[in-house]
Amino acid sequence: MAASISKGFALCYFFIAVSQGVLLRSKSNSKRDGTPTPIVMWHGMGDSCCARGIGRLQQILQSNIAGVYVHSIEIGANEQEDFANSYFMSVNKQVEQVCRNISSNPLLQNGYHAIGFSQGGQFLRAVAQRCPMGMRNLVTLGGQHQGVFGLPRCPPGSAVICTYIRQLLDKGAMTDFVQERLVQAQYWHDSLKEEEYRSKSLFLADINNEVTKNATYKENLQKLKNFVMVKFLKDSMVYPDESEWFGYYCPGQATEICSLRNSTLYQEDWLGLKAMDQAGKLKFIPAAGDHLQFTTEWFLKTIVGPYLSS
Known about the structure:
This protein is α/β, with parallel strands linked by helices. About 35% of the residues lie in helices and about 15% in strands. The N and C termini lie far apart (about 45 Å). Residues about 1-30 have low confidence and may be disordered.
């Protein structure tokens, strides 16, 4: 059983096609002592801090950015707990733990870049808004910034867990019982029931400033130098995939898509995204594949070079 679980989260989400990288060195924007800016990573659903896929990405970063420190977030005492907590732990408590860990890590005190994979993307955005502590560039790959309205497919090795998740969501994603226990319910966004979503969502509605307009969230997010959102153009995991670029279904239905720039959140600038866009801080990057499927060559050229190596 343990072996099958380990295999499942080791293979989840994405496959990296290994190609020859070019050593990326930063000079002009490195820290003053010459070392590159550290990188904080947060994995997605059904994964763990140190599984083969995420571990391989950490190796790629360390091999291609000379001397870089990479911190891969682990929620729990070991990989098995980290895996379980990606399904069954309060997201707000997870963010609180990460804030404490970053504030107590001496290697992150002079600033860091952050990269989140799938749900790890919106979780790191919550860190940027609640306890930024020097976050410079935030990169989200397949993050669900406006949530999801469906759970069509789960990572390999997670079939039993996903069946249970679907049962909970069917019983009521917005009930207190489910909201307090299921990670995916905490970014569930029923566009047919916007008022219920806003009143009962324990995580997403808060970090999107949809209930109380938290001026600190808006101020902190705008401290980022770049907010980079990667959308996978053939994504079969995230419904709707426009959530990866902060868009969503238009209110009151689940067919027509409204882009970020056409949303009330943007037009009234609840989070400062409009101001960031006008300042050139928002980057919308397309990726050709399915959810979290990309090559090392693409990762180095499109993400690491421009946003993680300085």
